[in-house]
Amino acid sequence: MAQINIRVTDEQKALINKLAKENKKSISAYIIDKICIESVYQNDSKNIDETKKVDEELVSLLMKQVEQKDIQIEQLHKIIYNKDTKLLEYDSKKLWWQFWK
């Protein structure tokens, strides 16, 4: 097993000792838990936050696209209605001999 030595002040050593005892762990186990396990949790929470942000942006973008499509569909309905109306008006104004034109 590898060993790591770090320099700390007496106050820091006392604090680490106290915190380890409060958590009922050895100093080594406490430091390993704090460094390794909590950093993984922090990274996971950061990843979740980033994913949530990306998802919210994607939902917002898709909602804007849906709104634009709704507007386009409404405009197309108006165009079709106007075209049909003009066609009916044109057909109704034809004289009987222009029926085949």
Automatic annotation (TrEMBL):
Checking InterPro entries in the record gives: Arc_rbn_hlx_hlx, NikA-like
State the Pfam families in the record: NikA-like (PF21983)
Alphabetized Gene3D superfamilies for the sequence: Met repressor-like
Q: Name one GO biological process term.
A: regulation of DNA-templated transcription
What name goes with this protein? DUF1778 domain-containing protein
